[in-house]
Amino acid sequence: MKTDVKRPSAEEILEEAKKRLAAEAADYTIRPAVREDIKSVIEINMVSLPEHYPDEFFYELYEHYGKAFYVAVDPSGRVVGYIMNRVEWKPGFFKHFIVRSGHVVSIAVLKEHRGRSLGFALMAHGIYSMKTDYKCEETYLEVRVSNQPAINLYKKLGYEVVKVARGYYLDGEDAYVMARPL
């Protein structure tokens, strides 16, 4: 692991996200999710990702970690993307003891709204919240080894591949576990 890598801070990432949104999605909003958004989040998950969770899982993450659960809203007020996270105590990827870690559980943006930096902005808000609201020392996620656009996004945000999870997905595809200190 390259722990000496210069990574943008959570604050720098959030500022970059604001600039990108102003330039690429000025009429869109990133805001904290409210309970009424969860139905839309579940629908986005169903059409955007091959991995699905029981509806209760979305509500549980919202109830327990709502400060790090964000949605992207288009100019008409429709929820078109989301990020949901949770906080875990686990062995650290960058320190050799138990740390408070922010886990990016799921992120998705509807296909017709991609290419506007909404994914970057959702990640930025989630990272910032995991650091400031939940006092996480690091953050991590799993991503399909074939999902190069997502891998590139996560690298821009300072994540690095820390291990490969063999057969992680139900279809047997491997996942990269990517992490970054906060």
Question: Quick gist of this model?
Answer:
By secondary structure, this protein is α+β, with helices and mostly antiparallel strands.
Q: How is this structure best described in words?
A:
The model has no long low-confidence stretch (mean pLDDT about 95). The protein is globular and about 45 Å long. The protein contains five helices and seven strands. The protein has about 180 residues and is an alpha+beta fold. Helix content is about 35%, strand content about 30%. The longest helix is centred in the first third of the chain and has 15 residues. Strand 2 and strand 3 form a beta hairpin. The protein has a seven-stranded mixed beta sheet. It has one domain: Aminopeptidase.
Please specify the SSE layout and strand pairing.
Layout (H helix, E strand, L loop, with lengths): L9 H15 L4 E4 L5 H11 L6 H11 L4 E4 L5 E13 L6 E12 L8 H15 L5 E7 L3 H9 L3 E6 L9 E7 L1
Parallel strand pairs: 4-5
Antiparallel strand pairs: 1-2, 2-3, 3-4, 5-7, 6-7
Q: Tell me, rounded to a whole number, the average pLDDT.
A: 95
Q: Tell me the name of the CATH class.
A: Alpha Beta
How many runs of DSSP E, i.e. beta strands?
A: 7
Kindly provide the radius of gyration, computed on alpha-carbon positions and rounded to a whole number of angstroms.
15 Å
